[in-house]
């Protein structure tokens, strides 16, 4: 083995000793750096503040607390209460009697009467020289419906021309009505107004029973003016006219109407 000179060994040891001293000197230098870098993190942790939660709500005053504790009206009850006015209206409406609409001669006669209302009044009260139907006046003048049917169909001019003065009851209380004496003219409903025998019957039924106040359900009403009246049905179907209805329904004692003026009959006839 070759022996290393002593001066080389010392130089090698000196070199090694210098390296260890440098490493030892470098180690303390890095420690403050680590400590310095950790200091801002600690400061940041201390600076971070956890936000506080919302403050607890204030207790309600007694009035509000009592209101919240009170039981509320259910929704179904509110709906029920809201429709009560409508229900009450429908209930009152249901209590009103439904007016029965007239049918047959009376119902149709009301329509035909539009030809007569301008003279005799909408309610049959009479206007000017035209006679009234109300308060039984028309029944007193014509106790038999056949005489009124003839008068309405032919009109006052034909009676005056034929010299027939009294178209109705000659014994009328308060005096008979004389054809043409009132100063007014009764137009011929047949030729002048163009009404059929059926329409004349309908309007006369309306004048006697609706406007004149005659009692329904009588023998005359059932024969002429009810919806099932034999004379009305005979005229409606064309089976009879005013000229022959007294023979078509021969067993009812109908007075001949005809197509010429005839003197009226008394109530006792």
What does this structure look like?
The chain has a domain at 104-252: Cytochrome Bc1 Complex, Chain D, domain 2. It has 269 residues and is mainly α. It has 13 helices and no strands. Residues 24-32 have low confidence and may be disordered.
Give keywords.
single chain; mainly alpha; Cytochrome Bc1 Complex, Chain D, domain 2
Uncertain ranges: 24-32
Overall spatial form: rod-shaped
CATH architecture of the domain at 104-252: Orthogonal Bundle
The largest sheet, given as strand count, sense and whether it forms a barrel, is: none
Treating each run of at least 4 consecutive H or I residues as one helix, how many helices?
13
CATH fold assignment of the domain at 104-252 = Cytochrome Bc1 Complex, Chain D, domain 2
How does the helix and strand content classify structurally?
mainly alpha
Q: In percent terms, what proportion of residues is strand?
A: under 5%
Task: Estimate the helix proportion, in percent.
Answer: 40-55%
The overall pLDDT average reads 85
H and E string: HHHHHHHHHHHHH
Distance between the termini: 188 Å
Write the layout of secondary structure elements.
Elements lengths: L5 H42 L14 H8 L5 H8 L1 H12 L8 H9 L4 H4 L16 H5 L3 H10 L1 H7 L34 H15 L7 H7 L4 H8 L7 H4 L21
